[in-house]
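Kindly inspect both lines:
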Amino acid sequence: MKPKRIATAFALLAAILYAVNIPLSKLLLRRVQPAMMAALLYLGAGLGLCAYGKIAKPQGERLTLSDLPYTLAMIALDVLAPILLMLGLARTNSANASLLNNFEIVATSVIAFAAFGERLSKRLTLAIVLVTLAGVILSFEGKDSFRFNTGSLFVLAAACCWGLENNCTRKLSEKSSVQITTVKGIFSGLGSLIVALVCRESLPAVRWTLAVMALGFVSYGLSINFYIKAQKELGAAKTSAYYAVAPFVGVLFGLLLLSEQPEPQFYLGLGIMILATVMMSREESNAV
């Protein structure tokens, strides 16, 4: 199989594994507070991949001191973005936040093009626009979704942080994806843990702590690992666009695990997402 097709499979697998997080986190949030949940998910990812690395001994270049600026930026942005999102959620409604959070795909693509010189063809640009539109349709919850206020600025800032973080991770994607995920998970998790403790959130019972960390290993650790592998061949913009299928897969998992029924706009958004995915696949076929 050609490298770009393997990378596409990695990107979609990363999205599917992350999508498992959505319905299961909804269940676990009944027992675990939000900031503590984020900390344990990241720590589960980092510690899980660390153990996996010792057992499997995967190949790949190790991070060096020359990679330190991008590594530190990646960690800092992963801690800052959720804080900005929480500040935004405190000042605006969830519908508005969900809608604006789709800007991450645009931010990733613009930063990849403007700051990192990543090539964006017309077909890929149109596909990214369609992916963003699909996400907007999926998260649309009525006229309240369009209220722009101070909270909206925080949500947009969070999306931009994640967009920049995606590009920082892309600059490291030639190195060991297992090591990158381990570093990212452990240090981002510790940063989030500090935030949780400052907010006076408490550690949950041991069984819930282990459950969240196990989920973090699968839906964060393995997902990020595959995401980085995909970035190596596809670049930050296209990988981010493929990864955007996660909310749609999450709705399907919600249907299976929580018996949640999709809203009518889900089907419209799904159709647009499929069209965008086909466009990206055809561009990839023409390029190889």
